[in-house]
Amino acid sequence: xxxxxxxxxxxxxxxxxxxxxxxxxxxxxxxxxxxxxxxxxxxxxxxxxxxxxxxxxxxxxxxxxxxxxxxxxxxxxxxxxxxxxxxxxxxxxxxxxxxx
Length: 100
Fold this sequence. Notes:
Strand 3 (42-53), helix 3 and strand 4 form a beta-alpha-beta unit.
């Protein structure tokens, strides 16, 4: 699992690449903390290359969403594939996030 983070003005784009399973969630927790530190702005999680997400990965998304909301920021998730969308739908996360 890799995450690349880019800045465009007050927008932060995080590109998630690979499988966000339990082991990977532990590995990328620091990257998500970096995003949380910038949660007052706009954060876009680009999931074009995200192949899989586990409950540990969902927890990272949810924590970032809460931190963003508490700081008045905006969190968007974009380009989720059919498998990831299915997980979001089954868990109810589809209604918690702005998916573009």
